[in-house]
Amino acid sequence: MPLANVLVETFLKGGPIMWPILVCLIVALATVAERLLYWRNVRRLRADKAFSEALWEVRLGQYGPAWQRTQGAASPFLVALRSGLANGRTEPVTAMQLRAEETLEEAGARQWLLSTIVTLAPLLGLLGTVVGIMGSFQFIGSEQLAVAKVSGGVGEALIATAAGLGIAILCLIPHNFFHRRAQSLRHDLEQAINQAEIALKSAAAAGQPVSEFQPAPDEAGRRR
Predict the structure, then answer these.
(1) Smallest Cα–Cα separation from 30: which of 124, 114, 112?
(2) How far is CA 2 from each of CA 8, 9, 26, 80, 152, rounded to the nearest angstrom?
(3) Measured between alpha carbons, how far is 72 from 82 in angstroms, rounded to an integer?
(4) What is the maximal distance between C-alpha atoms in the chain?
(5) pTM exceeding the 0.85 threshold for the entire prediction
(6) Which stretches within 15-110 are classed as H helix?
(7) Pick from 109, 111, 41: which is nearest to 76 by CA?
(8) Domain residue spans in the chain?
(9) Pick from 67, 87, 116, 176: most CB atoms within 10 A?
């Protein structure tokens, strides 16, 4: 496997600073993989049609069917609506907003890892550059000046710098992508909560306030 040998040889030539850079790469790859799976599930579980149907039932004051539609649902929109219906006697809109914030907290989880690596990896590369050049300076002016050793130190500096910058670039793209997805989800949740608030007000104007709805306990509630 010539390519593997070249990668290992280049890695070893980069000096000891390449090990923390390698840790950054592993953490970044694991984080990106986990976030891709998360957003794939969010896209699969959106259930826009089911949410629209539940909103229509709420607008008509049919809280029972709407509540049943939200049971067992993993869609962030239906979960927020379920929180609003469950807290209809107090502040349904506030309950939906709090549940949406929990969802957004999950959406932004581990984003700080990518953000940290984007900043840390180039700094580690710069540290490798300094260490490599310092190693080369000790041979300059010496009677036993070895050009190979001087060039080796410079090569070590360049390898560490390139590795750090490469990892930062690789992390920056998914970091911005996931941040954009989180912002889009925030916008969609805000729109969903506003639509739910309008539906609740329409039902209340028709004489069907949500405060009169008493949700039946779910299976988890019965077990407790």
Answers:
(1) 114
(2) 10, 10, 22, 54, 22
(3) 10
(4) 97
(5) no
(6) 18-44, 48-59, 63-70, 76-86, 92-107
(7) 41
(8) 11-120+181-211
(9) 67
